[in-house]
Amino acid sequence: MMTSPELGEFRGIIERFAGIVEGFAAEVDQEKMRAVGVQNLLKTFSKQRESEQQQIQSEIIEKMVELDKLKIEYQYLQRIESEQQEVVDNFYQNQ
């Protein structure tokens, strides 16, 4: 059987141990909250990146369509220039 001083010492050890365990529990909870925050931040960054990537792909498609239109217009203008040059050449030949 424990005497009163031994019992008091045992209670003190138990209280210190309980304090240490509570401190660890608080640290674990804090780290869990931090980890959840980081995880949410990473998800947000990932969604932003996906959104930016989709926007850039859309812009690329728009620019490709614009480029195709400009190529067609350029070919048309080359044809007109050629025809005009032919008219000019014919004019000078007939002079």
UniProtKB/TrEMBL annotation:
Coiled coil: none
One Pfam family cited in the UniProt record for this chain: IFT20
Gene Ontology cellular component list: centrosome; ciliary basal body; ciliary base; cytoplasm; intraciliary transport particle; non-motile cilium
Principal location class: other
InterPro entries: FT20
GO-annotated biological processes: cilium assembly; protein localization to cilium
Keywords linked to the UniProt accession: Cell projection, Coiled coil
Subcellular localization: Cell projection, Cilium
PANTHER family according to UniProt: INTRAFLAGELLAR TRANSPORT PROTEIN 20 HOMOLOG
Name of protein: Uncharacterized protein
Organism: Culex quinquefasciatus
Gene name as annotated: 6050813
